[in-house]
Structures are given as C-alpha cells and as structure tokens.
Amino acid sequence: MFNSENIINLLIKLAKKAYNKGEIPVTAIIVQNNKIIAKAYNQKEKKKNIIAHAEILTILKAAKKLKRWNLSDCNLYVTLKPCNMCMEVIKQSRIQNVYYLLDKLNYKHDFSKTTLLKINSKSNLQTYQQLLSNFFQNMR
C-alpha cells in the first residue's frame, strides 16, 4: 500500500545511493494513481550533463513510460526544494503537486556569473514576433 512514509524512505535510500556515487544526494519520485511510475537521483557527474537533476531525470522517465509529456495526473516527491530550472520543467510538464523534505541547503551557493542581455534588432524582432504569432494562431 502506498503512503508518504514509504515514499520518504525510498527517497532517502536513493539519496544514499547518489551520495555513495559522488553525486549530490537529491532524489525524486513521480506517483500516479498511488503507484510509483518513475524515480531518479542526481546524475550530473556521471552523465557529465548540467541538466541531469533528479527532478528532470524523473520527469523524462515518467513521460517516456506514459508516452506523453503532460503529467497533470501525477505528483512529484523530492528530497530538496527544486531549483528554478527544475521548477520550470515541472511547470511545463503540468505536474499537479510537488512535495519536498528540505527547503534549502545550509551553505551559500551562487555559481551564476551569467549576464542576460537583450538583442536590439527591430527588423528581426518583427519577423520573429510574426512567426511566433502565426504558430500559435495555427494551433487554435
């Protein structure tokens, strides 16, 4: 029988596995209709992939298993409150609820040195706006 204590125990078990493999011990599980359909832990180091966060890997596994990207009938359980990147992927996948154990890590980690700059190109801007507008009009 599914219950939140079982999920928490599995999250911790996966976190220990990640820790032993030298990964940040963040883990995620997706549940649909009281059944676990996907689980993962961070694999950024193993995969040498900057987006190999537990949440994203779990969402990709669930989408593959269900053969759809819309996971609106699913819930996500994670050990750590998702970062901004993961939250955007969670929103895009339409996951219903996100349950997490810990708000944040106890150390300061601001790795971002990136500056966001807008390109000023009026002619190309108009072309792109029209393309985007046409796309969404054709979808309706």
Give a short synopsis of this structure:
With 140 residues, this protein is of the alpha+beta class.
Mean pLDDT comes to 89
Shape: globular
Range of strand content: 15-25%
* Whole-angstrom Rg: 18 Å
Order of strands across the widest beta sheet?
2-1-3-4
Number of strands: 4
Secondary-structure-derived class? alpha+beta
Describe this structure in words.
This protein has 140 residues and is an alpha+beta fold. Helix content is 44%, strand content 19%. Strand 3 (74-80), helix 4 and strand 4 form a beta-alpha-beta unit. A 4-stranded mixed sheet has the order 2-1-3-4. It is built from 5 helices and 4 strands.
Summarize the topology.
Elements: H1 4-20, E1 27-32, E2 35-41, H2 44-47, H3 54-66, E3 74-80, H4 84-92, E4 97-102, H5 122-139
Parallel strand pairs: 3-4
Antiparallel strand pairs: 1-2, 1-3
Summary keywords:
44% helix; 140 residues; 5 helices; 4 strands; 4-stranded mixed β-sheet; alpha+beta
